């Protein structure tokens, strides 16, 4: 099974010609689905952008939301709007709202059938202030200005709000991972925010204490690490974005995190995810044809 992975599209910043070119590039890969690891657009147009992706491609679109997808509204209102859209358009699959999905090839091996023991799960994730030095950091994200939950709250409560968002993400994902059947041998995890400092890349380096509170979902990372240590026979592959810079982190022998690069106004393909019963591999688009 082959899936196109993209992240941080920010389609509200892309000209129509750039969007059309990107859609043609995705279509040319002749894959069986699309994975989006967040920051599709903003709250006012995220559903419209998802429709503009799903309808011409006629592929399953598996996605999570990023922090920018909530800009201009509240987190709860945006999530509910997106969930309603998924009910109306069956090609859309909001992974945060779903249990683990078995990955099945359209051309299964006649001996083994669908790829045995391979599952897809996802969770939005947040920079949850559990890593780095929140109090001493000079960084303050636009999230606090453009997401109404933070606008309506006192700045002194922001750290607690971030911690709660991270805890909720970790709890949901931990439950999904714990519920996987015994035959699980490979798990593909899609999230927006890097769940480990070692996976939070910028210009070839990982994050410092100033940026980590807002660019690492530490509680999510601890949940993933715990289950990977408990089930060492299973391989875990995490796909994330948020930093707009790329890197690979081998966190555990059976846990690898891929962080993809992105450029505002220029949506691009991060990789082709090639899933077989033996392994999950990431290929550059030019390697996939």
What labels describe this entry?
single chain, 289 residues, alpha/beta, six-stranded mixed sheet, 8 helices, 21% strand
Would you give an account of this structure?
By secondary structure, this protein is an alpha/beta fold. It has 8 helices and 14 strands. It has a 6-stranded mixed beta sheet with strand order 4-3-2-1-13-14. Helix 6 runs parallel beside helix 8 (218-230). The radius of gyration is 18 Å and the shape is globular.
User: Low-confidence segments, ≥5 residues, pLDDT <50?
Assistant: none
Question: In which range does the helix fraction lie?
Answer: 25-40%
Percent of residues in beta strands: 15-25%
Q: What Rg is obtained from the alpha carbons, in whole angstroms?
A: 18 Å
What's the topology here?
Elements: E1 2-6, H1 16-28, E2 34-37, H2 46-57, E3 61-64, H3 75-88, E4 92-94, E5 101-102, E6 118-123, H4 143-146, H5 148-151, H6 158-178, E7 186-191, E8 201-202, E9 205-206, H7 212-215, H8 218-230, E10 235-240, E11 247-252, E12 255-259, E13 271-275, E14 280-283
Parallel strand pairs: 1-2, 2-3, 3-4, 6-7, 7-10, 10-12
Antiparallel strand pairs: 1-13, 5-6, 8-9, 11-12, 13-14
Helix pairs in contact: 6-8
